[in-house]
Design a protein that fits this description.
about 375 residues, mainly alpha, 3-stranded antiparallel sheet, two-stranded parallel sheet, about 60% helix, transmembrane, membrane
């Protein structure tokens, strides 16, 4: 693997080439958020006040769901302090943006800003990192999952993207609630409870059928869109001892109009170098990275990244490879032999101890 550098090392070398305005908050991003909020409210009123064909409701649900997702992307930007700097206003606006995804601003900053960004692709400290072979060995559930055919696992994992953000947010709440100052824990709880009070209240106001189209289906759609991006951010990249965004992060490409609608969320390597910069300026960062480190930069169309995720397992072997332990199939990661245009597996690099352990576990023996 190449020599690794921290995100600060890259930032120090790129910063002099960027305009000063790139390091200032961009409050005009809030106009986009207001537009999405108005679309959501209009969708709620249309579903709640009128009786239409269910297929029309489904179309409205899709619009609401895509708006939920876009509000989440803006909330992510707001809570990094790139839209407004005042802490109380940042948290208020971030809470509103994340309200549909039921994630509170204090939890998000703890989970995402202070942990994921600081410890990206660290198998012990990054809450978003996928498990290693060692963790697979210790988990009966993972060992059972990986006895299933790869095609079934891939289909199931993609289907579960419709629930994954909400589920992972709940998991992170359980993980981190005790790490908050006891004085702040009631606020964190309220930021979890109040959105659900809103959405359950909407259920009683609208009734189950209309609520299904106004909130539940849109939530599934929002989860799928958000997780479509998040799944490609790091899951094809290696784990790294140094938090090097050019090694452990992937930028995906989408049509320009999608970038506009999603606040440039596709620029993920750039975000990990400058998490405190508005994504409005990430195209400038990308331009400089490709000029100076073109051989280290990872980008691909989102469609190709998703296909690569479908074709590869999600268990890490020795940090730089992915393994299907039941089959003993090894795949490279980005920068370590993974060719997304021609994904191949190999077997010869398992150590003798790993061969013994995986065979024993595959046969149901205790180790």
């Amino acid at each position: 693997m190449k020599d690794l550098h921290s995100f600060g090392w890259y930032a120090a070398r790129i910063s002099p080439h960027l305009p000063k305005k790139a390091f200032k908050p961009v409050p005009t991003r809030l106009w986009g958020g207001l537009a999405y909020l108005l679309v959501v409210v209009a969708g709620f009123l249309t579903i709640g006040l009128f009786s239409f064909n269910p297929f029309l409701y489904l179309g409205i649900a899709f619009i609401i769901g895509t708006s939920f997702a876009a509000m989440g992307f803006l909330g992510h930007e707001i809570l990094h302090g790139t839209v407004v700097r005042k802490a109380w206003l940042r948290d208020l606006l971030g809470a509103i943006a994340f309200w549909p995804l039921t994630t509170g601003p204090m939890l998000w900053r703890k989970w995402h800003n202070l942990t994921h960004h600081v410890h990206t692709q660290n198998d012990e400290k990054d809450p978003d990192a996928w498990p290693t072979l060692e963790k697979w060995k210790r988990s009966r559930f993972l060992r059972w999952i990986y006895k299933l055919p790869h095609s079934f696992r891939a289909f199931s994992s993609f289907a579960l993207l419709t629930l994954m953000f909400t589920a992972h947010s709940t998991k992170c709440f359980v993980m981190y609630i005790k790490e908050f100052n006891p004085k702040n824990q009631p606020k964190v709880w309220m930021q979890l409870i109040l959105p659900w009070v809103t959405w359950i209240g909407l259920l009683f106001i609208m009734g189950p059928l209309k609520w299904l189209f106004a909130f539940f289906i849109p939530l599934l759609i929002a989860n799928a869109i958000v997780m479509g991006y998040i799944s490609t951010n790091h899951r094809l990249n290696p784990m790294t001892e140094v938090n090097d965004p050019l090694a452990n992060s992937l930028t995906v490409t989408v049509p320009k109009w999608v970038d506009v609608l999603h606040f440039n969320f596709s620029y993920h390597t750039e975000h990990h170098i400058f998490p405190g910069m508005s994504s409005k300026y990430y195209p400038l960062v990308k331009e400089h990275i490709k000029k100076v480190w073109p051989e280290l930069y990872h980008e691909m169309p989102m469609s190709k990244a998703l296909v690569a995720l479908w074709k590869t397992p999600r268990i890490y072997y020795q940090g730089s490879e992915l393994i299907d332990p039941h089959q003993g199939h090894l795949y490279g990661s980005l920068g370590n032999g993974l060719d997304v245009a021609n994904i191949q597996y190999r077997k010869e690099q398992l150590t003798e101890n790993d061969e013994i352990l995986t065979k024993a576990l595959k046969n149901g023996k205790n180790v």
